[in-house]
Design goal:
The protein has a domain of 44 residues. It starts with 8 loop residues before the first helix and ends in an 11-residue tail after the last helix. Strands 1, 2, 3, 4, 5 and 6 form a six-stranded antiparallel β-sheet that branches. A two-stranded antiparallel ribbon has the order 7-8. A two-stranded antiparallel ribbon has the order 9-10. 32% of the residues are buried. With 411 residues, it is of the alpha+beta class. It is built from 14 helices and twelve strands.
């Protein structure tokens, strides 16, 4: 039996305490067993206008864009002929992506399909879009040609709110408010904390991170196939549920490099932040995704709550969690404001491939020693930043660092 947040007495007590602390718990309660329905993100704006306005500018709110309504969002070069591009913008119903890659969807009947060419945003070039040999698990159950593979079972559940697998309909496209907070009709009628899911509720760090991991991970639904169809997103999960009741993360096997994992266990490809994070000590200690990121939008990279190292040193100082001893420059042996003194440079290296030669940051927060590069081929942050140097050079440099134990880097 799936237990949902807001259903058990322990959860209600915790929420009541949180509401009382915030001074916003007054007001009538809904009747026992009242149904919740999806109302759409626009319904949230009346009471949460500032948050709504920030969210509208995020990547979450703009995963899919209509090229007719927003022609400025088209990033691919459709003016220069390319052998990979066999379609025109007039055939495109949705643009997908605006940071690493952009793909182009067309509509046929009740389904959408992705054209077989994608735009590499960083390198400004077209790349073929087809499954890789030995790649995603679902490739065994679908044609290789993306024009014969509808997006509903493999993509749309994470790029929309309330995707109905039977009717192939949505409440709204993109990652709207209810994708993370659950159906909102009851909260509109009874605007109290107990009628909506909030990832920052105290005492439920696992359920909080589940809200993000539902889409930022590689896995399979436990009940696959569903109605004879294989899905690549957790069908049936709603915020507040235990994600593990619906979703199984892709396994990794130490010492084996796969499409999804490096041999030491870090993510080998994108959309695996959750696979990484559940291995981390941050997750073990109850730190949630929302502790570092605000999905409603911030002025900072990746919607971090604070810029640069500040989001890390808020907790990691010599006096608190295991943090840098002395100054950051002493800890990193790099200039204070240099790239090498950014916490993410060493603890979140870009090793998860997304398109072409572009990679995104690891979320295990483990330092990848050059020794692991020698043993398993996984890139390390030292020679990634200094590509002209060798692993032997990196190890010799690390041995000289006064704050680094030689036992931690392989002698």
């Amino acid at each position: 039996m799936t237990e949902r947040l807001g259903a058990g007495p322990g959860v209600v007590a915790a929420l009541a305490l949180a509401a009382a602390t915030a001074g916003c718990g007054a007001g009538p309660r809904p009747p026992e067993g009242a149904e919740r329905e999806f109302a759409g993100s626009a319904s949230c704006a009346e009471c949460h206008q500032e948050i709504f306005d920030r969210w509208q500018e995020t990547l979450m709110a703009n995963v899919l864009q209509d090229p007719v309504e927003r022609p400025e969002a088209v990033l691919g070069d459709f003016a220069t002929p390319d052998t990979l591009v066999s379609f025109g913008l007039d055939e495109v119903a949705f643009l997908y992506g605006s940071r690493w890659k952009q793909r182009y969807l067309t509509r046929r009947g009740d389904d959408y399909y992705v054209f077989p060419a994608q735009w590499d945003i960083q390198n400004e070039e077209w790349r073929r879009y087809f499954p890789q040999p030995g790649g995603d698990w679902w490739a065994d159950f679908y044609p290789a040609d993306p024009m014969q593979r509808p997006t509903g079972p493999l993509c749309d559940g994470c790029h929309s709110v309330n995707y109905d697998v039977a009717a192939k309909t949505v409440t709204e496209w993109n990652v709207g408010c209810e994708r993370c907070h659950g159906a909102g009709s009851l909260h509109l009628e009874y605007p109290i904390p107990e009628t909506i899911v909030n990832a920052e509720w105290p005492g439920y760090p696992v359920r909080s991170s589940d809200v993000c991991i539902q889409c930022h991970s590689q896995g399979q639904p436990r009940s696959n196939p569903i109605g004879g169809v294989y899905y690549d997103w957790p069908v049936g999960y709603q915020p507040g549920d235990r994600l593990t009741d619906f979703w199984v993360l892709d396994e990794h096997h130490l010492g084996e490099e796969t499409f999804t994992h490096w041999p030491e266990g870090s993510a080998h490809k994108n959309r695996m932040q959750g696979n990484d994070y559940v291995q981390s000590q941050m997750y073990v200690k109850g730190v949630t995704c929302a502790a570092c990121h605000d999905p409603h939008g911030t002025p900072y990279e990746a919607d971090l709550r604070q810029p640069g190292n500040a989001v890390c040193t808020e907790c990691h100082t010599p006096q608190l969690q295991p943090g840098p001893r002395g100054t950051v420059a002493f800890h990193t042996q790099h200039e204070e404001e240099s790239e090498g003194s950014q916490c993410v440079a060493c603890h979140m290296p870009q090793v998860a491939r997304t398109v072409g030669n572009v990679a995104v940051r690891s979320h295990t927060f483990r330092f990848i020693s050059p020794v692991l590069t020698e043993a398993y081929g996984i890139p390390n942050p030292c020679t990634t930043c200094h590509p002209e140097e060798s692993n032997e050079w990196a190890l010799e440099e690390l041995r000289r660092w006064p704050s680094v134990s030689p036992w931690r880097i392989g002698g």
